[in-house]
Amino acid sequence: MAADLGELLVPYMPTIRVPRTGDRVFKSECAFSFDSPESEGGLYVCMNTFLGFGREHVERHYRKTGQSVYMHLKRHVKEKTTGAAGGAIPRRRNGKVFLDLELNRDFNGEDFEYEDEAKLVIFPDHFEIPLPNIEELPALVTIACDAVLNAPSAYKKQEPESWEEEIQVSRHARSLRQLNNGVRIPPSGWKCQKCEMRENLWLNLKDGAVLCGKWFFDGSGGNGHALEHYKETNYPLAVKLDTITPDGADVYSFEEEEAVLDPHISEHLSHFGIDMLQMQKRTENGHHTENNSRLRVSEWEVIQESGMKLKMVYGSGYTGIKNLGDSCYLSTVMQILFSVPDFQRMFVGNLQRIFDYSPLDPTQDFATQMAKLGHGLLSGQYSKPPMKSELIEQVMKEEHKHLQRGISPRMFKALVSKGHPEFSSNRQQDAHEFLLHVINLVERNSTGLENPSDSFRFLVEERIQCCQTRRVRYSQRVDYCIQLPAPIEAATNREELLAYEAKRKEAEENMGTPPEPVRARIPFTACLQAFTEPENVPDFWSSALQAKSAGVKTSRFASFPEYMIVQIKKFTFGVDWVPKKLDLTIDVPDFLDLSRLRATGLQADEEELPDLMPPIVGLKPSFKNMNSLCAPEMDETAVMQLAEMGFPLEACRKAVYYTGNMGPEMAFNWIIAHMEEPDFAEPLTLPSLMDPGPSTSDNPTGATPIGNSPPEESVAILTSMGFPRAHSIHALKATNNNLERALDWIFTHPEEEETDALSDMADTEPNDNAFSSANSHRYELFAFISHIGASTMSGHYVCHIKKEGRWVIYNDHKVCLSERPPKDLGYIYFYHRLSSS
Fold it and tell me: Buried b vs exposed e over 423-444: b needs ≥16 C-beta within 10 Å?
């Protein structure tokens, strides 16, 4: 028999490999489905690639690769039998067959026993060889089988591979003596001290200087001022500001020229007001004070609908997702994405095509893993109602076990979080950030194909106005989510909040019992109003003045998406860098009309700002006299390099000037972008500083008109927000031309607003077809994600989705009909646009 088995395996010996260091053995889950050794058909592991396949997918892999030898793994799960005294009789066979195999069931392992079975299967004849079979198999096959059976989980093997093992502790970390210069770093609003860059910023741990990194370092821009600072001061250690978390931060040593570890990073950061230890304590415990703890318990019960007898639902679209340990942010996002028809059609509708054309390693293919997850959620294959016998058995034993198991997103999470410092960890994350991360991955992997994320895509029109010259600039950008502020000052129970705050402070001073927490109640209209209000533009450079000036920005919708994502900005940072969650409720409507946020574009009475780029920071123009500018300083070498390419000399001079003498490459890009302009080759001209443009003194529109007629400037601001002109004038007249009160008046007079809007529309030209119907701006709520906890770095996520006319709660692997969906406590809301008919 041994000779027969040896001869049988001879043709396949070149394809059988022994797993080497670095090889991952997928023996717990199929690459195309959620089948496992516990599934009815078991799991087939290729003895060459070590990929796992369920029964319905192993044939595809054989046909595509020609690999014939697979190890078939099957785990039989049984309840332990009880003895006469009621105790369990321990019995387990083949205990070491599935070493490190993770359980795919949600039950107490002590109540069950496992009978593990392994065998080699040769395709296409399905010839089976039971294992272990050491004496009859060739030595190479025996070694390979033993290595596969004892290999660790494909995902557990990655866990020890962390930066802490690769990066060394800096020799400067323990001896670092920080300067007592009183520097305190705020939690936001950073900019380079030398060039005012606002990205890729590094904090020097010696003196607290905030400076920019290298150009394109870490994927973002900078002018290398952090390195220059080291050369000037010899202060070696710096930490990247946007990488600071309770678990550490990215530290770089300029002297050692590599990323390093700082074991005292928490102490070093606290020297500048960044209290990581307090951040760790607060975020892990999930509360700040006893008051907050009591508050969060109520939030926990309301959002999860605890205490209610919720009815479990099964079938297509009602499959839960297991929590891998603080992975609920992933579960809620993916449940909602796969309730959108565009995602269903792209990944589940094209399932067979995606699987058939998947690469040799489908575990690393985004489309394959999206299709796998979508099919798992929508097929109903992993959400079957319990058998009648199981229910009867539960009643007889007076047990109440969760019969919903859900699917494990381990393979999907490993792929989409690969290379991401936050999502690849086991810490809780922000669901909003993960949502944008997935949309970005969909964009990158949909080149030339249908892009389902287009259903969330819309254009934002940004209007920036120079407050001194009143000139404007319109631009558009792509976005996927509208972020609404949560103005606490607009709370309807403001007096109650003030009384609570007074009692809380009194209790703290007297060491007394804290009062019952009070949650702010904010109208949704107040959130929309806060979004529409003009905001100041920091460091605004006016191309009309050729200098910095005050500027305001307003944003409107240039297009409306099929699905609107609305995020409530509930999270903020305190002065101690601790992320905090604003505790509030918002009366979010089921139906939303965004017609008032429609973009209007350049108006007839508006004058555009010149299309000029700001000069290089630090470049000081010299003057011949007080009335005109002399020729600006310019990199003549770059100008000549561009001229030698055949471009007009004056165009080259403008390109170098408007790119701030940043070099010929940047200037070349400017030339390519402006070649079609009619004044492309005209001489460079700069306006006189003595003639900055129209002012309030000589412009009749800027003066306060006689009587109670509203200033045209105020009317323009309101109309730029999307409000009708007639109604804007009415609001200003009713509030004595007070702009802030006029905004409040508009939002509190909807009936009159509609009447005036109709008359205003009759006096204006028709808009584009995209905005021809009011229904094109109307949306209906169909899902929302709620967060429980004090910050995005802790707590739990739950989502509610409206399916078949009823609300369903998805709480990890549990899926039930919702009795009281907590729509007022949501964090991210999803709306579907109503049809125009």
Answer: beeebbbbbbebbbbbbeebbe
Q: Are 31 and 53 in contact (CB under 8 A)?
A: yes
Q: Across the chain, how many H-helices and E-strands are there?
A: 24, 28
Q: What is the pLDDT of residue 221?
A: 58
pLDDT given at position 440: 92
**Residue 82, both tokens:** 């009880």
List 592's β-bridge partners, or say none.
779
Residues 333, 785 contacting (CB under 8 angstroms): yes
Tokens of 726: 């007639």
Phi, psi torsion values for 758, nearest 5 degrees: -65, -45
Supply the pLDDT for residue 391.
Answer: 54
Contact 213, 224 (CB under 8 A): yes
Distances (CA, A) of 700 to 425, 706, 726: 61, 11, 20
Phi and psi torsions of 307, nearest 5°: 85, -5
Question: 307-327: per-residue pLDDT in tens?
Answer: 788 899 999 999 999 999 889
pLDDT tens-digit profile of 150-162? 888 787 644 444 3
288, 787, 796, 813: the active-site residue: 796
| Helix (H) / strand (E) containing 228 | helix 225-233
Q: Would you say 447 and 471 are in contact if contact means Cβ atoms under 8 Å apart?
A: no
DSSP H helices in 592-736: 636-644, 649-658, 664-674, 712-720, 725-734
Residue 594: closest CA among 497, 527, 685: 527
Map tokens 């004892």 to a residue. 150
Q: Which helix (H) or strand (E) holds 369?
A: helix 366-378
User: What do you get for the CA distance between the two ends of the chain, in Å?
Assistant: 76
Q: Beta strand 210-212 with 201-204: parallel, antiparallel or unpaired?
A: antiparallel
Rounded Cα distance between 837 and 491, Å, is: 37
pLDDT tens digits, one per residue of 755-803? 343 333 333 333 333 333 334 789 999 999 999 887 777 789 999 999 9
225 marked among binding-site residues: yes
Counting every residue written for the chain, the total comes to: 837
Distance CA 551, CA 262 (A): 42
Would you state the pLDDT for residue 421? 79
Strand-strand pairing, 814-817 and 826-833: unpaired
Question: Is 195 labelled as part of a ligand binding site?
Answer: yes
Residue 796 appears among annotated catalytic residues: yes
Rounded to 5°, angle at Cα 821 from 515 and 807? 170
Q: Give yes or no: 328 in active site.
A: yes
pLDDT score at 291: 39
CB-based contact 758:736 (threshold 8 Å): no
Q: Within a 13 Å sphere around the CA of 165, how many CA atoms are in the beta-carbon half?
A: 5
Residue 520: closest CA among 570, 589, 475: 570
C-alpha 335/C-alpha 347 separation (Å) is 14
* Residue 468: closest CA among 692, 177, 666: 692
CA dihedral 276, 278, 282, 288 (to 10 degrees): -140
CB neighbours of residue 790 within 10 Å:
25
- What does the alpha-carbon distance between residue 41 and residue 118 come to, in Å, rounded to a whole number? 12
Buried b vs exposed e over 747-773: b needs ≥16 C-beta within 10 Å? Answer: bebeeebeebbeebeeeeeeeeeebee
Taking 70 as the pLDDT cut, the residues of the chain under it are 1-3, 79-112, 134, 156-166, 215-221, 276-298, 388-403, 573-579, 615-633, 660, 685-709, 712-713, 716-717, 719-722, 736, 740-741, 744, 747-775, 837
Predicted pLDDT of residue 390: 57
Structure tokens at 319: 């499959």
- DSSP bridge partners of 817: 808
Q: Which of 328, 466, 652, 816 is catalytic?
A: 328
Alpha helices (runs of H) in 29-84, residue ranges in sequence order = 55-65
Residues 21, 33: Cα–Cα separation, whole Å: 26
- 38: how many CB neighbours lie within 10 A of its CB? 19
Tokens of 519: 């949650």
| pLDDT value for 283 | 38
